[in-house]
């Protein structure tokens, strides 16, 4: 029984409370605003299994690493996203009995993630041990309009008694990360204060000295009438709160409004934190819950206007794609170029909340098409800011020059330590270069190249220059000992994708150099000087490009994933006894490695990225060879296959691949959603629809669409921001309509024909 | 200043006490008797850096493993040799001041490992804080004649005062392993008793329930006169002891004799342990220290008679080779077929005291030539007993049949968890098969094959049968994804050595089957039935043997270490800036892997093992290609190269390689002797002399010698036990003398000519 959520176009709905699903729901019903995020933990006490998670973006901890066998170059620390002060807590006692859903009878439980409005609500009837029944209705959100603010409305109605309700709103900084390697607590108390109407708590991380200040206040009303309360202040280690009791008659509704401002030393000096938190809180309290809620609805309306996908005729698909878009929008808003996108967003601790190549390879396209170009640009700037660290990382691994970006990072330093990943999965460097191309190609922002792009490209090209291996006997350059995107191969020679993306990086770097020399000669000279770029270097890059070795099989006319790939047993996945899959749960690592089975797109990833350089036949031959060997055991795999299948006209395969990720978390497909949602792979699902079914590409500054309707839907539509205009593309059963929602005219190529879509008008094209 | 020990033919001598070298000396001056071992820790209190180590062979602990990133098939536990009850302890107080060499001034310190007699002695003058001076002379040994017994003579003489000496002999089971993964203690108390003249302590391991009982008694005398003592019994957690004080006049000698019996539940039922310990102790005490010492000298005289190597004209070399022989003899005596040889013997905890392929590849030849054949046979039986576990291990890794012996083990189960080692370094299976061949070839004990050998061979052949990969396009069998003996390559395809030893195993198994069918038809039928051996299987083995793929380069006419080896940068080690070596301390793992540098013999290991199948030219071409790429960063590497160099007539290279291991620990060459000595590689040094300089081989039941004098020595001689006779081979400057020390005539082939050496006579042959 994986499927326990109700289908709905705009909401995720859970009906009936089941303890064993609670941690999954805690992930799925998470809320965030790019600045902070909160798992769907309960406000009141809860003694059942739970993964507490209150996360402040960019606040992390360098936890001492755990390793079986040390290798030179491994990092000593693994940076992990921190579970921070629990700011949602409201203790509830009914006539002295603590409300705890794990310890009472729960009826009419409903939990709703309202994606349209960006709120989490919950209602239930709790029958306490002594038979007393109360109804609770809770609503909360983290404000998109005021990112430091979280607000909660928590209502209690006694149903069959009158009595005393005791309420304890609090801030608790005495929290722990579940994934702490040595069961250490990461926070120390700095300051606390429980004032007349406001309580404040400042905690700091035991390393790196991040300070987080939370300031809270609360109000209560009964049947809509504000209450004047007698408050008992509470102070404990890393904890502040109030306790107050109210007599409530049967059927009266007691409502608690809790407002919290969370501010961090990432934005304020230590001395300013308390004032900043108080000011943010004051303004929020003055606005009041209603107004804050209204603001929230408005910001989300804007988000949906820019990024919604509508699927007609399939509620489950509609719900799923909106859930994915919702998660992406609440994980990263692009306002802060020091932030990036963790694989679990704000929904869990796993993967340490760190940045992977997922961002460049999968997430960037989503933000390029659904938000102002400055948002995607900030994702690029993030890596630019880490260039120095990437150079240091290359030195650590023995390279004299160039930059190797880390596989997993929070601050630019490598966090991970499996040699086959950390040291060998160097293709990530290519994805970071490719993102620059992708951004500039999409937005036309050529200025980025001189400002930031070239430096990153040149240092990555230098890395490849040093990393290749010249083989005199063959007069060719090779790249030995790598792990490609398909992590079910380790330490292989000449992974085609890696060789290709390395060579491509050097090509593109030379192209950008030519462009800058011509278009921005002064800046060009400055950069050559700053980079100390020598002619021998660019000449060497040209030589490597010319003499790069690409493994290839003449008989099958396909690129080889790596040297020797055809020596493997090539039995396709469909002929494998299903008891063996997923391989990563059933096979030992050596067996996986020597098999031909592919975790995620590898050769095909290259044909996808560099799609305009390969003809359809080449793509088809390689797809036909590799896809049947692919087990898709990375959530990032199906989307690339779906998009390529669309291009190749394999409609059923495209839809099958789309389905594999669309409801990954909602249906807990991988049995691991309790750890958090697969946030970055959600961008892949979005790509399946827009780049796959929609066939979106940008060529020579023109938006190309090549849509087809997968046939299971009445119609679907998506939004595309492109160079100032916003287009809504609706793919019906017979035709495609491109509607320009802005006043800026747009040129669009549909099925190979160019159209100009005037401001606020549309074109319709038959399939 | 690595070299701090005095050169001497029969002893290891340290003069002058230096704190920072103490842990190195604790390793080097270790004593053992195959049943138990003891680092050269001090009897009295010591507050300086020390690695306490009292080890009982076969008593181990399954410590919870520590791993960075889990893989299917990894063992949950790492079995490690246990630091057991400290039985040497004797607390000393002089007028209330504790004797502690880290806290007083030490003069005239001498520590001597008397290898001829198997004893450790120590003498020094300690000047205490208040100026009192005492002379201490301590002597101890673990009895070779009575393996459960340890004995200590500890003498104190006040030099400039008269006063009270307080003595506290004790047994302390409250000890810890330094390498405990989670700082846990592994022992719990079972029983303790402090009687009038005897104290006993039984402790048990918290897992596996090993019980160790230690029983001690002690005597004291002053100036040779036995003392009647007033004893204060002491009992603490896991601790028993006595405290007693004696008034000693200036220049009087107070002598303490401490006797301990250590018995374990490996040999006795829980209920018998105390009685067994008491009985052993009683008998030892009755014999007295003098007699025990005499027995010790006698047993060691026998050992030396059988295994000594004499080098004339080079004291350092003489000392080194005796040290190696001494360590081997005190580590493994071959009396107990449940025991094996840990890489550090009884000298430290590192590598968990577990069994590696070192035993079969390096140690077996030493025991074959220097002891009764039953000793080497017991090393084989050890693996026979683990056959069931090896089959289970293969199942765990997904194999339907066959056996994969563990890489690292204590009880037959795999202990290690690096996938590239544990799962992929499968050539170990070949070494275990090869050891059977080696043993039978040397001893002529064909009966072993039917009794035990075939079962192991057949199950290993079955493993290879399933592990190979048929490549239809090439009509060949390959072995993909392995790590060869050269661990500086991981997950390679078609490691020549692995393919070769796999194929060889199947060849030998078929040969043994033929032999048994003909010579022992009844047993043959029994075994075919027991093994359920099918004709398809042996046919399949034949096919694999015929169609096995061996990577080879036609141009250079050499075997390739693995597919693609020649694509690497082939710069020889001599052209590498020395700042890079040792690579394992300076290079990240990926850099090591993609380099051509070789940790230890790989192709050459195969040419060494299967030396009679390859001609000298082939060996020469491969040696000339691979040796210059070899960094010898395993202590097991130089010996194989030394032996091959001898065969190829590369005298200087042979001697250079010999020197790299001969004094490895005595000169702390690898800067790690404090962790323990490299016990198994000592067998390699022995091989360098006997198989290398001596040119010893056994062909068709005949002992072949092909000696040469490396030129740095006047002469050298070694002992060889061969089929009942013991030969002493002396290699002088001009001639070789083979002396038969037994009455059984022996046939010997020297420089290609066969001689019969009569009982107690000799032959002399010119070079």
UniProtKB/TrEMBL annotation, chains A, B:
Residues at the active site: 487
Glycoside hydrolase family 65 central catalytic domain location: 322-687
Domain of life (superkingdom): Bacteria
Residue intervals of the Glycoside hydrolase family 65 N-terminal domain: 13-266
Binding residues annotated for substrate, in chain numbering: 357-358, 599-600
Domain Glycoside hydrolase family 65 C-terminal positions: 696-757
InterPro entries: 6-hairpin_glycosidase_sf, 6hp_glycosidase-like_sf, Gal_mutarotase_sf_dom, GH65_N, Glyco_hydro_65_C, Glyco_hydro_65_M, Glyco_hydro_65_N, Malt_Pase/Glycosyl_Hdrlase
Any single GO BP term: carbohydrate metabolic process
GO molecular function list: carbohydrate binding; glycosyltransferase activity; hydrolase activity, hydrolyzing O-glycosyl compounds
Entry-linked NCBIfam families: PRK13807.1
Similarity comment: Belongs to the glycosyl hydrolase 65 family.
Official protein name in the record: Maltose phosphorylase
